[in-house]
Structures are given as structure tokens and as C-alpha cells.
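An instance follows:
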Amino acid sequence: MDTLTAMKGVALGKTGTKPAVALSKRAGLMPRSAIREIMSLAAGRSDVIHLEVGEPDFGTPSAIIEQAFAAVRQGATRYSGNAGRPSLRATIAQHASRYGVPVTPERVIVTVGAIGALFGIVIGFPLFERTPTLCALLPTQIL
């Protein structure tokens, strides 16, 4: 199958055109994520209350915006470790310990969303949400 054939099933973008970049055969076979399918189904309905993907119905508080900009200006522009920034993990551990359960920073893992946290609890280690989809690009089998 050539790239053009693989692109026949690709959904049109907001501009009404197909992506300008040709996809590889394997990338063309990668399934769309379930949350994107659900969001597409709900997009045109007026009777749907959206509670997904962390999209609140209010703006980011100005104090958070200011602190984020200050952090970037101070050089906080790199990925953190897989378990999260040590200072944040220490703060979370300290906060959790206030409720009578001693928690050390080494026992805290910070994730970017609930899926990563829940998956980590179920299988014992964090996993990037799209890992199964990305594995579909490789000659692998997820058990």
C-alpha cells in the first residue's frame, strides 16, 4: 500500500484538507484514541456536559500564570524525571503526612493525568497513555 492509499481514510483537518505530511504505512494503520472518538461524537450535541480531558469552564488563575512564567524565566523548561520534580514530590509527601499517614517523597509519583496514575497503580509502574497505540507501529503484541 502506498502513502496515498493509506491516507484515504484520514479525517479532514479544520481547514478541510488532509495533512500535508505523508504518513508511513504503520502510522496510517495506527488507531485513533477512544477519547478522541467519544469527543467527536459529542462535539455536535447540545445535551452533552463535557467533563473530559481537563478542560475546565474557567480560566487559569492569574497567580498560577505568573508563577508559570516566572519558572520558565528561571530556566524550568526541561522535562522532569519520570516520577516528577523532587521538590513537588517532597511537598506532596509533607501534605499527605498531615493526615496521619507518614509518606516519604520516594513513595510519591506525579503524573500528568489520571490515566497514567491509575495504570501505574494497576500494573505497578507508570505508563504513557499512548504506549499501546505507539506499540501498534512496531512488530509487537501487547498482552
About this structure: The chain has seven helices and no strands. The helical segments are 3-7, 25-29, 34-43, 62-73, 86-97, 114-123, 131-135.
